Amino acid sequence: MNIKDHVIINNNEHIRTGTIIAIEINYDNEEIFLIRLKDYPIAIWFFNHKYSIILEKY
Fold first, then answer.
1. CB-based contact 16:24 (threshold 8 Å)
2. Which of 25, 24, 34 is nearest to 4 (CA)?
3. How far apart are CA 43 and CA 57, in angstroms?
4. pLDDT tens across 29-49, in order?
5. Contact 21, 37 (CB under 8 A)
6. Under 8 Å between Cβ of 30 and 50
7. N or C terminus of the chain: which is more exposed, having fewer CB within 10 Å?
């Protein structure tokens, strides 16, 4: 995944689309994605794969 990629976020409850605006590595060496969701354009959301969240490019 790269910055400015358009992604689908699926957490088994909701499926949303958004754009990656930053990628960080936390202290456990895991990638955390800062994503601007299409249906919440003002907020920035943090996602990672640890909590059963699936990120897919579209």
1. no
2. 34
3. 20
4. 888 888 898 888 787 877 776
5. no
6. yes
7. C
